[in-house]
Amino acid sequence: MINIQSLTFSYKPGRPLFENLNLQLQPGHIYGLLGKNGAGKSTLLKQITGLLFPDAGKVEVFGEVASERNPSFLQDIFLVPEELYLPKVKIKQYLATRACFYPNFDHKAFAAYLKEFDIPQHQYLPEMSYGQKKKFVISFALAANTRVLVMDEPTNGLDIPSKSIFRKLIAGTLTDDKCIIISTHQVRDLDNLIDSIVIIDNHRIIFREAVETVTDKLSFKVVPQLNPAETVLYADSNLRGHAIVTPNQHQEHSRIDMELLFNAVLSNRQSIQEIFN
Amino acid sequence: MEFKDTQAIYLQIADYINEQILLGKWQAEEKIPSVRELAVTLEVNPNTVMRTCELLQQQEIIANKRGIGYFIQSDAVKKIIAAKKAAFISNELPQFFRNLYLLDMTLDDLKPYYATFRQNKLNGHEN
């Protein structure tokens, strides 16, 4: 559904952010895009949505070249940015002037989402708090019913009950023909929603695996003591003991710890790559 | 639902469904909530719930009726209890016996506690 080949891009000459970056994403999945600050997560999302253009290589979404920004492309993709710029209008006016760009926009669902998030229908957008604005844009994005939905740090600014509502709404909107991409640092907010992990580092995609594959090949556990005989790919020691990542040699069915995985991939890339190839 | 850190989510969802069946909240021959409904309730990816349903189907606890959804098999309770018993005996009993042994207790010492527990259960108290 999304096909990025040999993408090269830099904001400043001589300092490439992406070099020959390749990434293929399929419908029916929720991808979690992880990376350090400045690794290029938001930039990659902007490339996918046609807001930035490649210096070289290509970005295609359902066969359309993103940078051409054809109406047939734009009406089927939605980006929830991290920073929101909303016009000085009421919700009703926003809807009247924006929803028409999305042929599959579901007005009934939009009203239901606002109600779930407890946002009054007659709000004036500039008077809303950051969290409320975020919930408004998320509601609009989900109601737009596009085949590709891209969200940059969507849980930032949401309070605890709203995060739970967010998870319910996302769980309810994923269908076989949709692709949802979420970039986040707050992996614990979303770790049961994300089914595939994409890690970006050092100008490239360095890891892209289904959660199922990760837990087939790796085991995540907390042990009171490190066993010198056991291969440990990454360890994080705290009061509870040692949170470790090891090769899954005994067909254990552990629960993925995405923070631990992220640290393991960044610090021990070669061993991890050997296990997955 | 609060998930534990240790076990894969799809297995924890299987435990959740099994428990609904054992508690009689979901009855044999009845349809269970759809994959989507379960995903929304539990705030998890529908693909994960799908994996749970495939597992439970393999274990013949639920069966897929094409186009309608998953139904609970007539002997589901029997199958769940048998599987849970086997797991209890191999996973939890050794630790429990070890404690009994360390505390120098006999099985007879436990009888009054278990009797009180059962009585509370029958009276409809929690735990």
UniProtKB/TrEMBL annotation, chain A:
Record has Cytoplasm as a keyword: no
Assigned keywords, A-Z: ATP-binding, Nucleotide-binding, Transport
Domain ABC transporter, residue spans: 2-227
Gene3D superfamilies: P-loop containing nucleotide triphosphate hydrolases
Organism domain of life: Bacteria
InterPro entries assigned: AAA+_ATPase, ABC_transporter-like_ATP-bd, ABC_Transporter_VariousFunc, P-loop_NTPase
Keyword field contains Nucleotide-binding: yes
CDD domains hit by this protein: ABC_DR_subfamily_A
Molecular function (Gene Ontology), one example: ATP hydrolysis activity
Pfam families for the chain: ABC_tran
Name this polypeptide is given: ABC-2 type transport system ATP-binding protein
Record organism: Chitinophaga jiangningensis
Automatic annotation (TrEMBL), chain B:
InterPro entries (UniProt xref): Tscrpt_reg_HTH_GntR (IPR000524), WH-like_DNA-bd_sf (IPR036388), WH_DNA-bd_sf (IPR036390)
Database matches in SUPFAM superfamilies: Winged helix' DNA-binding domain
Source species, domain of life: Bacteria
PROSITE patterns membership: HTH_GNTR
Record's keyword terms, sorted: DNA-binding, Transcription, Transcription regulation
GO MF terms held by the record: DNA binding; DNA-binding transcription factor activity
Domain HTH gntR-type: 7-75
Coiled-coil intervals: none
Protein name per UniProt: Transcriptional regulator, GntR family
